[in-house]
Amino acid sequence: MHPWYSFYWFSLAQWQQFQLAQPLALWLIPGILFLFFLRYYLYRNAQQRLNMSIGQLSANSSRAGRLQASRSLLSIGRYLLPVSVFLSLSCLLIALARPQIIKQQRSEQSEGIDIMMALDVSESMSETDLRPTRLAVARRVAQTFVNGRKNDRIGLVVFAGEAFSLCPLTTDYSLLKQYLSDLNDRMIRTSGTAIGDALARCINRMRDRTVSATDTVSRDEDAWKLERSKVIILLSDGDNTAGNLDPITAAKLAKAFGIKLYTIAVGRPMASATMATTVDEGVLKTIATIGNGSFFRATDAGRLQAVFAQISRLEKSPIRVQVYEDVQDYYRIYVYWGITFLLIALLLKNTIFGNVLED
Question: What InterPro entries does this protein's entry cite (predicted)?
């Protein structure tokens, strides 16, 4: 930091860093300048001057030249007193404007939400109406969805004829994406689609208040935090054909625990001479309605990605923004300058520059 007596405090580079708490004070500086000019205009003809005869010195041109130069310096010196007074008042007005440097820090805190993804890995997910397969597209889009989340705990349940909790709620997104990349249609040998059991697994994970070893969310909750929002995203391509729990009952349980349900029907209806593959929307629509969520149809990879993007926009966790300001005042420096110029003016008042004949 420069000392207060450095002229750097009057440089343009320094003033570009300042913010003025009372900028109107600077408008008084032109007013002071106007008063000085007004005083000069009113008293220009009433000034007393001491005339000196230099007729005898005119013969000596060199001495006359030196005397003329001295008179010119004295004439310029007459303005030192008013200039000092003007600078003193200007510096005091700058101090009154309170130049400051404000350093701002912005802190964002988000509680995040709990999201359980339930993905169908039954044999029908190997259909190629979504290239390369339905499961491959769902796996890739789910990983993109995970990349777009922040401060959210995300878990994973897979199901076919049975349902298994593959990954608990965690903020270790690298681990979660590794689980997603390992998904295949041979993970669960039991055939069928157990949507109700999958929902039950998700609900149990969200009801569990214990903190997983893979959960990096702090165990200490701030006083401002509210209850975390809970969401289930279920992706399937068929009707409920297996399991021990009816999907409607599971959806009602989810609603009772304040869990919102989003369901996605992936794939398009297909028929061939040997078999028919259908995508049943009825049960998926019903449980989404019961769970205060939404139902989506994804007939291609682009549409599935758009569905996940829409869910990501709908489910945003509240963010608390804290702004910290470090305010440093520099008015004292200009007070010191103002006092310095005032002392100079008082000193000049007691010299030839402050002679009453020049007032």
Answer: UPF0353/GerABKA_families, VWF_A, vWFA_dom_sf
Per-residue tokens: 54: 């230099």
Q: What is the mean pLDDT of the chain?
A: 81
The sheet that has 114-120: what strands, in order across it? Answer: 163-170, 153-159, 114-120, 230-236, 259-266, 294-298
Provide the 10 A C-beta neighbour count for residue 172. 17
Which residues does 11 contact at the CB level (< 8 Å), separation at least 6?
A: none
Q: Which of 93-97, 194-198, 343-347 has the lowest mean pLDDT?
A: 343-347
Homologous superfamily (CATH) of 112-317 is: von Willebrand factor, type A domain (3.40.50.410)
DSSP 93-151: HHHHH-EEEEEEEEEEEE---EEEEEEE-SGGGG-SSSSS-HHHHHHHHHHHHHHT--S
Angle between helices 247-256 and 195-207 (to 10 degrees): 20
In contact, 116 and 152? CB cutoff 8 Å: no
CA atoms within 13 A on the CB side of 234: 40
- More confident of the two residues 58 and 127: 127
Domain chopping of the chain, boundaries = 7-104+325-358, 112-317
119-158 confidence digits (pLDDT tens): 999 988 888 888 889 999 999 999 999 998 888 899 999 9
In this structure, the strands spanning 163-170 and 99-110 are unpaired
